[in-house]
Amino acid sequence: MPLDNPRLDYMNYWLVRISLFINYFVFAILLNSVGTVILQVQNTYGVSESDASVLEAFKDLPIAITSFLVASFIVRIGYKRSMQIALGMIGLFCLLMPQLPAFWMSKLLFAVTGIGFALTKVSVFAALGLVTSNRKDHASMMNFIESFFMVGILSGYFIFSAFVDDANPESTDWLNVYYVLAALSFAALTLLTIARLDETKARPVETRSMSADFLAMISLCIRPLVLVFVISAFLYVLIEQSIMSWLPTFNSRMLHLSPSLSIQMASILAASTALGRFTAGMVLRRFEWFTVLAAGLATAAVLVLVSLPLAGTVSGEEISAWRDAPLAAFVFPLIGFCLAPVYPAINSVILTALPVRQHAPMAGLIVVFSALGGTSGSLITGSLFEAFGGTTAFYFSLAPISILMLSLYQLKKQSSLAVSYAN
Length: 423
Prior knowledge:
This protein is 78% helix and 0% strand. It is mostly helical.
């Protein structure tokens, strides 16, 4: 069958996209299983809480370091090959987890997961410019992929819990979940291997040294368009992470939900975010991105102003059932639906405003500054939570939401100038 056969091209189109979806799905489960694994390694291996807490660092540091070091020359490795390496590593180490039941193996798995995710995210963000036809299609695809990440987070809670033996906390049976994750990894790897990904457009027009590629990535930061984007991405992740990290604590301390119910109801935020990105994937095909995002931010601000006063009407008795939970516990997490389109959309805006060969280094900068924004948001909200209480801490989100609105307007202007100049 010739390669230009329309049916084959259509099949290849979906093979690539489905592979990217499963790829992100697997990493979402692994990356966000850290809380579950922290609990399980304490029960299974008898490690202390302080020792178990280092798993977070084993996950996050490799993401930031790998993204920063590899993004500038990942095009030399190839996007497809980088994703194949990531999936192969993850599949292998998932298979080893049940065979080597030890705390050091858990550390090693999260370190490999961080490295693999950095390779995957940079490659996926860069490859989108090769598998989408226009800016609206790019924005739509970005939202669908990010929504699958949120679905992975949600699924992870149920997948891991299915393998946990409550009657025998010291059991290693929970490690069998990694056989399922290995199977998913190898399935994505198989689809990706079969699919054809033409990376010709992404290759540099001239041969340069790796040091020159690295300097070229750093030089992107001085462009007005990139500077405005960096501010926007930083602010968005600051808002998202501050709410996501502290919502269970808010539910427990401000709304007086039991610890288990506080965690369960925090999943509403992940669910609403996933739904928001699915919806945005369709809406952004028809409407201009700034209009959609501005409406979402305005609605998010209204939700903050409406839902937080409801928290003050809650009685002091502990609540342990969903049916008894106060209205605020259901309303406030819906902010995820309103904020959901922002991150994928602005990533799409910056990438489609740049030449395809610059997508990989730009993707590296996206990952680095997203990590900085997430860390800052969690630290700032934690300090405000301790000093002024949870309600005041979440009211603080109105400040970055307002600044983000202004930043997005500037991003719209700069991206329009960049596209006009390119044309």
